């Protein structure tokens, strides 16, 4: 029960710290011109891996490991629970009332006050046998919890690296495809411009002009689709790795 309380308290601290962290910013790719995509350079993978450690997923796993380490330190001091110290201190005015009489003296009362203080100190030992024999086992169990938290953090990081590699490879491929589609669109625009002039001069008919327009539209559609897929991959990559890519142009 005590371990659960500590874990719950640690998670509350974690969520409070996450709430205070500024939201991760993602670059605005909608403002890019077609020529801007050709100048985008992806950062090295090692840098992306390192920056990804600042992501909430990795930080959460790290905090859980830290909580388990704190609990392990507590279990190693659990034997101190067998001992107790107690003490008290008192200070005040104490009064004393008395009656005095004699054969020749009528009875009369006397009252006296005096400041006094006092204190007590003690110690106690209470050793439950089940707690005593379970001390070593509790420490071992908590060490296993620490190791479990370590492995969970490593597994999370491996999953993040796999996602980064996939996004990186996809973005690299889409950059090349986008460049090819940009060249094809440029050529289609030139061809359609020539076709318009030829149509105005009567060198070609409307059917030929329509075919060139269709080629231009197909090239434009392919380029826009490639731009969309590339922008999506780059934005997700920025979000996962906390690395602004546009600034690395």
TrEMBL record:
The keyword Chloroplast does not apply. Keywords: Cell outer membrane, Membrane, Signal, Transmembrane, Transmembrane beta strand. Residues 1-22 form the signal peptide. Its main location: membrane. One of its GO terms (cellular component) is cell outer membrane. InterPro entries: TolC-like (IPR051906). GO terms for molecular function: efflux transmembrane transporter activity; porin activity. It is found in: Cell outer membrane. This is Outer membrane protein. The keyword Calcium does not apply. It comes from the Bacteria.
